[in-house]
Design brief:
The protein is built from twelve helices and 18 strands. The chain is of the alpha+beta class. The longest helix is centred in the last third of the chain and has 19 residues. It is globular.
């Protein structure tokens, strides 16, 4: 009998998307085949403590973190052990084969955790440091896509310091550069946390300060009036493939946090009602976007389709997309012929494949002769 693969599912985290992460982790843990995988749940609290134990996810969702034990990993190449921490002593708890990060947002999806896992040299699901960092920062992501001549909406970038010290100048710059409506967003966050749709001058200041709560970099993006919101799931390493496209019909003015996770009023249309040409073009751009940031494993690429001009714009990429019961990423693959369970199997296979390829890289220069 084949030995089980030990998968460490990491969830929670120091992010405004902490609660969303718990929802995604729940779906994943329920669907990982117990005949193939030994599951180790690792929760990260909002202040950054790593905890594990029996039914750790239940404890996080019920606020019973005191039932769990502190754990740690060492940034030492080849040490894939998770250690229990007790009175300053470290006791091996589980040796992990693969880490499945289900950490949306900062300190999980932005390359920081990925860098730590690279130091250890362990297989992990999803994009590496580069893809994660570029995919998370909305402004840098747009800059990269423009370099590849991929379509994005116009935008401005400000810092928290600029907003706090030169608000009037920031407001004037926005209003003389971009027509209303505009969207103000934290540059490094997802799940629509901290996003404000602004239609007039009075909205701008409130939106800027709201975004500044969550990030020091703030992006102000040209908005469209009632665009169609199209999403595509991408899967693979060096040879990625795209799912069919789906459409989100928000139950609110735009696809807010509430519309995504708390409300039943938003609708998902799968497949999206597109012409064959539009479907193929969106799939093509999704794969090009994925490759442009050197993504691996998985990503969901989001688009805006202008109803008036029919122009397609890349909105963002999510390198750790949502995996809840209503999340587009798994639903699009299911509609494309790949079940949730098969999708998880494939993601773990891709993580191991990526590590095998990474292990071929030489880190010591050898002179010939």
């Amino acid at each position: 009998m084949t030995e089980k693969i030990t998968v460490g599912v990491f969830f929670g985290g120091r992010s405004g998307e902490h609660e969303v992460s718990l929802l995604s982790a729940r779906s994943i843990t329920l669907n990982l085949d117990p005949e193939k995988y030994r599951l180790v749940e690792v929760g990260i609290t909002k202040d950054g403590k790593w905890l594990s134990g029996e039914r750790a996810l239940d404890a996080f969702q019920e606020g019973r973190m005191t039932d769990l034990q502190p754990v740690a990993m060492f940034p030492q190449a080849g040490d894939h052990n998770l250690y229990l921490v007790n009175d300053g002593k470290f006791q091996p708890y589980a040796r992990l084969d693969v880490v499945f990060p289900v950490l949306h947002g900062t300190f999980g999806e932005d390359g920081t955790l990925q860098g730590f896992l690279e130091l250890i040299g362990i297989a992990y699901v999803g994009g590496g440091v580069l893809a994660s960092a570029v995919g998370m920062d909305k402004a840098l992501f747009k800059t990269v896509l423009r370099a590849y001549d991929l379509p994005v909406l116009d935008y401005l970038l400000f810092t928290r310091r600029q907003v706090e010290q030169n608000l009037e100048t920031v407001l004037q710059t926005i209003e003389t550069t971009l027509p209303y409506p505009v969207f103000i967003k934290p540059a490094n966050l997802g799940s629509s946390v901290g996003i404000t749709k602004c239609r007039n001058h009075s909205d701008l200041g409130e939106g800027l300060y709201e975004a500044a709560r969550y990030d020091r970099r703030i992006i102000v993006e040209q908005g469209l009036e009632k665009p169609r919101e199209i999403e595509v799931s991408v899967l693979g390493n060096d040879q990625p493939i795209a799912s069919i496209a789906g459409e989100v019909v928000p139950g609110e003015d735009f696809y807010t946090y509430s519309a995504k996770y708390l409300s039943d009023h938003s609708r998902l249309i799968i497949p999206a009602l597109l012409s064959n040409e539009q479907m193929q073009e969106i799939q093509r751009i999704a794969v090009q976007t994925y490759r442009a940031i050197d993504c691996a494993g998985m990503a969901r690429v989001d688009f805006l389709l202008d109803r008036q001009t029919e122009r397609i714009y890349v909105s963002e990429v999510n390198t750790i997309p949502g995996f809840t019961r209503i999340s587009m990423y798994p639903k699009l693959w299911e509609a494309s012929g790949l079940s949730y369970v098969e999708l998880l199997d494939r993601l773990i296979e891709l993580a191991i494949e990526r590590k095998t390829d990474r292990d071929r890289t030489e880190f010591h220069y050898r002179r010939e002769g």
